[in-house]
Amino acid sequence: EQVDAISDDSEPAQRSEPAQSVVTVVKLHVPEDASVSLAGNETRGSGTVRTFRTTQLKPGQRWSDYTVRVSTEINGQRVSRERTIDVEAGTSNELTFDFDQTAVAKN
């Protein structure tokens, strides 16, 4: 019997998900209090590392022009950064959003 799922050697292979299901990951490094939206949808979460997983993409599929928007407040002003990426099924995508505190003029 052939098992297509990848599993940790320390645990038996699980068959709870179909063999065609793949996990696609988007991992973001953001300011602690930042708000994050993925493809126009606001997300919940906090902390400097946010990890989002989906099984909606099937092998061979991709989301082109997937927009990641991060907003935070610097010196009383709302500042946003946006990046557009292509997300392929089964990949892990990692992005860092740096907000230079000195780039915003103080009033």
Summarize the structure.
This protein is mainly beta and 107 residues long. Helix content is 0%, strand content 45%. The chain starts with 23 loop residues before the first strand and ends in an 11-residue tail after the last strand.
| Spatial strand sequence of the major β-sheet | 3-2-5-6
Report the span from N to C terminus: 69 Å
What overall geometry do the principal axes of the alpha carbons give?
Answer: elongated
User: Cα-atom Rg, whole angstroms?
Assistant: 18 Å
H/E element sequence:
EEEEEEE
Number of strands: 7
Q: List the uncertain runs.
A: 1-13
Residue-averaged pLDDT: 83
Helix percentage range: under 10%
Percent of sequence in beta strands? 35-45%
Give me the secondary-structure category: mainly beta
* Sheet with most strands: 4 strands, antiparallel
User: Helix count?
Assistant: 0
List the helices and strands and how they pair.
Elements lengths: L23 E6 L5 E4 L2 E2 L6 E6 L7 E13 L2 E12 L3 E5 L11
Parallel strand pairs: 1-7
Antiparallel strand pairs: 1-4, 2-3, 2-5, 5-6
3D structure, described in words:
The protein is built from no helices and seven strands. Helices cover 0% and strands 45% of the residues. A four-stranded antiparallel β-sheet has the order 3-2-5-6, with no helix packed on it. It has a three-stranded mixed β-sheet with strand order 4-1-7, with no helix packed on it. Strand 2 (35-38) and strand 3 (41-42) form a beta hairpin. The chain starts with 23 loop residues before the first strand and ends in an 11-residue tail after the last strand. It is mainly β.
